[in-house]
């Protein structure tokens, strides 16, 4: 691949990152397609290429406030995980990775057969439920169902709790962006991280 095509790939990835950062698009696929149309090209950058540009963009715009927000979001994640302790909560997403930007929400997986129990717990603790949906996906030929709860705290922080069957608790899942295993952080691991290395990143080298 020559330097000109490399440069064009970077431009398309950067445009997709812009669309995601400013909330014009919510999903990587749509952002990449729209960015490719903007530049009149047939190829799409990889999710990883877009993620790297999104990371650079957030750093340029947010500066040191980005790290402060990351620590605060990890603290808020910890408080929520304490409320959901009985359901084996795991922090995932960009707040786990350490790549969160100002538009990022806090993503937590819990394991339980009754999503309504989780919703009731959240409502009891003054969280505002915004939306719920059941999502079916196929991974490695296997159908996986999860229930997603989108909600906000009193200070406006946005969360997504993904409710999965307890049978899925130890199943390994590959990340569509980074290509590694999504391990996340348990409650105890997050507590330790906040004490020892609160801005640590979890991204492949």
Shape descriptor reads globular
CATH class of the largest domain: Alpha Beta
Strand arrangement within the widest β-sheet reads 3-4-5-2-1-6
Radius of gyration (CA) equals: 18 Å
Strand % is: 15-25%
Average residue pLDDT: 94
* Sequence of secondary-structure elements: HHHHEHEHEEEEH
Number of strands: 6
Structural class label: alpha+beta
Q: Helix count?
A: 7
* End-to-end separation: 22 Å
Give the helix level as a range of percent: 40-55%
CATH fold name of the largest domain: Beta Polymerase, domain 2
Fold and architecture overview:
With 205 residues, the protein is α+β, with helices and mostly antiparallel strands. The protein folds into two domains: 3-62; 65-196, Beta Polymerase, domain 2 (2-Layer Sandwich), CATH 3.30.460. Helices cover 44% and strands 20% of the residues. The protein contains seven helices and six strands, in the order H-H-H-H-E-H-E-H-E-E-E-E-H. Strands 3-4-5-2-1-6 form a six-stranded mixed β-sheet. A hairpin with a 2-residue loop joins strand 3 and strand 4. Helix 1 (3-21) packs across helix 2 (28-39), helix 1 (3-21) crosses helix 3 and helix 4 packs antiparallel against helix 7 (187-196). The longest helix has 19 residues, at 3-21.
List the helices and strands and how they pair.
Blueprint: H1 3-21, H2 28-39, H3 47-62, H4 65-83, E1 90-92, H5 93-97, E2 106-111, H6 115-124, E3 128-139, E4 142-152, E5 158-164, E6 185-186, H7 187-196
Parallel strand pairs: 2-5
Antiparallel strand pairs: 1-2, 1-6, 3-4, 4-5
Question: Summarize this, please?
Answer:
With 205 residues, this protein is of the alpha+beta class.
């Amino acid at each position: 691949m020559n330097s000109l095509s490399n440069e064009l790939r970077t431009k398309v990835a950067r445009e997709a990152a812009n669309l995601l950062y400013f909330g014009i698009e919510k999903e990587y696929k749509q952002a990449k397609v729209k960015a490719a149309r903007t530049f009149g090209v047939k190829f799409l950058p990889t999710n990883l290429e877009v993620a790297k540009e999104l990371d650079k963009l957030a750093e340029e715009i947010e500066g040191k406030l980005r790290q402060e927000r990351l620590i605060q979001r990890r603290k808020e994640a910890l408080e929520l995980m304490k409320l959901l302790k009985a359901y084996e909560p795991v922090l995932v997403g960009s707040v786990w990775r350490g790549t969160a930007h100002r538009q990022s929400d806090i993503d937590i997986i819990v394991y339980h057969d009754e999503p309504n129990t989780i919703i009731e717990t959240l409502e009891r603790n003054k969280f505002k439920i915004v939306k719920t949906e059941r999502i079916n996906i196929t991974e490695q030929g296997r159908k996986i169902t999860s229930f997603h709860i989108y909600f906000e705290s009193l200070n406006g922080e946005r969360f997504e709790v993904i409710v999965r069957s307890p049978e899925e608790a130890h199943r390994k899942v590959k990340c569509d962006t980074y290509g590694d295993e999504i391990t996340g952080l348990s409650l105890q691991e997050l507590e330790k991280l906040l004490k020892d290395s609160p801005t640590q990143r979890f991204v492949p080298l």
